[in-house]
Amino acid sequence: MELILNFDSADKASLPQVGGKNASLGEMIKAGIRVPPGFAVTTASYQSFIAETGIENAIFALLSDLDVDDVDALNRVSAGIQELMNTAAMPERVHQGILDGYAELCRMCGTEKVPVAVRSSATAEDLPTASFAGQQDTYLWVLGAEQVVDSAKRCWASLFTPRAISYRVKNDFPHEKVLISVGVQKMVHAKAAGVMFTLNPTNGDPSKVVIEGSWGLGETVVSGSVTPDKFVVDKVIMEVSEKTVSRKHIECVYNAEKGGVVDADVVPDRQTSCCLDDREVMDLVQLAKRIEEHYGRPMDIEWAIDEDIPFPENVFIVQARPETVWSRKRKESVIGKKSGYQLLMEQAMKRIKIS
Amino acid sequence: MADEKGRFPDPHEYQVPPELEGWEEMYPSHYLFSDDRKEWEGSQFWYLDKIHAPEPMPPLDQIFQEAWQISLSQYTTRVFCIPPAQGIAQRMVGCYMYICAIAPPPEQIIGEKAALFEKRVFYVFEHYEELWGKWLTKFKALGNEMAAVEVPKELPKFAPEDQVLPAPRGFYASYDLMTAFDKLANLMIKGWQYHFEMLNLTYLAYLMFGDVTRKLFPGISESAIGKMVAGAYVSMFKPEEELCRLARAARTSYTVSEVLKKEAPAQDKISELEKTSEGKNWLQEFEKSKDPWFYVSCGSGWFHHEGSWLTNLNIPFSYIKDYVERLERGETIERALDEIDKQRDEIVAEYRNLIKTDDDRKAFDDAYKTIRTIYRYAEDHLFWVEHWLHTIWFSKIRQLGNVLVDNGMIDQPDDIFMFTRYEVPELLTEVATAWALGVDIPVRGSYYKAKAKKRRKILEAAAKWNPTPALGVPPEEVAEPFTIMLWGVTTDRVKEWLEGMGEVKAEDVSQVKGFASSAGVAEGPARVLRMLKDIIDLKPGEVLVCPSTNPSWAPVFTKIKAAVTDIGGLTSHAAIVCREYGVPSVTGAGIATSVIKTGDIVRVDGDTGVVTIVKRA
Prior knowledge:
The complex is a heterodimer of chains A (355) and B (617). Chain A contains 12 helices and 14 strands. With 355 residues, chain A is an alpha+beta fold. Chain A has 2 domains: 4-186, ATP-grasp fold, A domain (Dna Ligase, domain 1, 2-Layer Sandwich); 190-328, 2-Layer Sandwich (D-amino Acid Aminotransferase, Chain A, domain 1), CATH 3.30.470.20. The radius of gyration of chain A is 22 Å and the shape is globular. In chain B, strands 6-13-12-8-9-10-11-7 form an 8-stranded mixed sheet. Chain B has a 4-stranded antiparallel sheet with strand order 2-3-1-4, covered by helices on one side. Chain B has helices spanning 38-42, 62-79, 107-126, 128-148, 161-164, 173-195, 199-216, 222-229, 238-251, 254-261, 266-273, 277-293, 314-328, 337-353, 358-406, 424-437, 445-463, 481-485, 491-498, 573-581, 592-595, and strands at 45-48, 88-93, 96-101, 470-472, 477-478, 511-513, 515-518, 521-528, 543-546, 562-565, 585-587, 601-605, 610-615. By secondary structure, chain B is of the alpha+beta class. Among the domains of chain B are: 1-126 and 442-503, no CATH class; 235-334, no CATH class; 506-615, Phosphohistidine domain (Glucose Oxidase, domain 1).
């Protein structure tokens, strides 16, 4: 089995090797959606790592009999596993595989060191019925091959944070069954970014796309550290039914001195200006519709607008996963079995309360 | 405005400005709040009817209001029997009209009505096409009857020979003059009885469909619902189609198009066209289109002073000029009606696809079929009643006005509109009497002239007054479909009124709200047009601000940046045409024409329904 797999070679079928997030990126590329290029470090790499270094048995031995409600024990076991993973050396062919993958990405982007986002992509995460979202790590603006290798390893280790361990136990997911892949994706030099839903998460209205966005990278929106600008757009007639521009006091941007992303202050004038223009909003809605249609279900999507590229080539989708809250509800009819005349009679009998 | 208990002024205590002194006699006495009905009137909720009476009411134009009060109400209460709904009552206060949706009847009546409703209403839906055909036939007959009412041009010195010999006719010009008006008035009342034949049911079906879609798509906008329901092939758009047809006909002859392209009054163009055979042929085509399609009011059709294409041929001729020029530039002038219908079907299919369960899809299909069956009525009746019939009426009444002028009763023909429909017979009878009495018989012309003059002054004063949006006690519930659909009386609306919108001075208002009826945002200098005849002032790139539009305004929409109207919902003419041309619009903004002044820089947000005055002129 491949140790790394380019996003454009991944799809639904490769989920066991590349995890939900990466498989989803592959699917979108197939559907013609603009996704920043990258590759997956497959679960085979991870398996090879824990098996060939011999830490596998030690890890599962530590986990057996663990009482996750015993916080001290949980933390101790987690720390122990992290230690095991950090000190174990990565098998050479896995190491080389990641180096090759990164080199190819750099070549493709025409640069020596392309900044990338390194994200974990677990095989159980993002499944519609098991929202593991945010349980694993993300490293932004990683520069250089060895840094990518190092971040990938840290993503693997994130499978064993106290929270992740406890979550699996409580949801009856066997630890052995959860494998992890890592996605390495070119960073979007985001002018603005955020999330969108292909239904209105507040009332489940399936005719709306709701976009939330802020300046810089989308992390501020995802983490809730800013109140984002919000747009509610009708999917069918493409009308903006709600537009709220909020005060966005900080933005997540790359800082060369610190060698990573930081939350920087936004100058006052820009705080209250809208982070998206009308055509960007419309383009995002079109993308959301295509993604929903491709997956055949409501989706939760992360997007970013690149500031170095002209519209519309600058609109990127960086992530898409099935929406879980409303998709689980709403199986039953809202109106019921009623004829037009019954509905008319009901209307005729209606009185509208007005005070 | 309202007191702390959330009440509006008591209608019996509400004071009108002193300049309006004498307004009461301009309307039928049963239109006044009166002590003998005090208890009932005081417990109802009366709100200003800005849709039918956005401006002070000329006495004779009041006939339409009288007619609809009875007709609309009787269909709800006695004919199709919408169970908990009663009629809409009207009152006049200082030349403005207030209306009230009467509270539901006792439970027993509701039950009786429900049984009748089921039987009668479902029948109408099942036989709509057939019923519409019958409606149109009888309505056209009615209009033709009105057009055929003979108004004596002048009272003859002596009865003509053929009325006396060989056998006396038995009745003469005096009778013709007196009865002409009675016939016209009765036919108008009858036309309005027809007007509501299927309209209450149309609105009910529209509300039902809106409710169903809102349940399926909680945040769906009114404009989306409007788009699903509205049709392209409706009588109201026919006048514009006829203009296009005539423009194309003109293009087949160089001389005809050259004449039509001139900057000249319509009458000059007609005289010139009459000189050539090609011109004559074209004029024949024009005559073919004219009745009924150019019987179009330049306004809503509710006021005599709006005029019509018929009374102002410069309007259709200026549109034809524009169309001929556009054809020469190789542009398409016709609206792509098939395309509009196709787009509507696509929109409906797309919403339908979003529905999750089979039962809901079925209910949606059924609800949609119900509204589509009848909705055309909302669009078609408007042309035939408010435009065609009213235009015939106004021209007939003006003929009577001319007779009154000729006989020294009033100064100008339109002064006849300063008298109620109960007073006009008095004027005509006096003329008939004087004629009968012989030669050199004085009439009280100065009395009537002074009256007309005074009433015009009162109307002018009333136009400057901003009356309270409502009177009396807000009700707990509303069941009457027109109240909800046309006037949008909801909790929010009442609250808005209670907050005292009416008391704010026009110059202090920087924002008005209405329906977001055509998407997009545009900014530009405002052009406030109260009358279509002022349209020559409009410059390309301006934002049109007007009371309402209708097909007689259609060619304007290619020139403007955005449109704002005081009156009209999401399926109003302005809304439909703006969406078609991709021009942002806000309709039903209520006070736009009184708040916005020509030259103000305004921003029209057709996505949110907000019009902002960015900079005052």
